[in-house]
Design brief:
Elements (H helix, E strand, L loop, with lengths): L2 H9 L16 H4 L6 E5 L4 H12 L3 E6 L2 H13 L4 E5 L7 H11 L6 E3 L6
Parallel strand pairs: 1-2, 1-4, 2-3
Length: 124
Amino acid sequence: MSRGALRCGAAFGLLTSPHRSRTDLRTISDRFDLTSRLALVTGASRGIGQALAVGLAEAGADIVATARSESGLTKTADAIAEKGRRCHPIACDLTAAGAVTTLFKTLADRSLSPTILINNAGME
């Protein structure tokens, strides 16, 4: 095992030590339960944003996915549904003036109150 893998495993408490019993080993998903949480992920139609949205869904969160691409959001929503979680896709261009205000009005109109924000939208 490489030194980097050892450091990473130690950071997440995944390695054993002489002072810890084997029954105390838990995976990161055991420690990272987001059941009943709602996450807002910007830039969620592809790449890192899509991976983060799906990963949060795997951990139990429902997702509000935003991006410029409606077709990309559909793919993200399908991947989240496969994990058994709900996705609320909202197509919007956050670089446009007033887009953030419009997004939050849409969230309020749909009675969605995210408790997690992943601000991943790329800005040019």
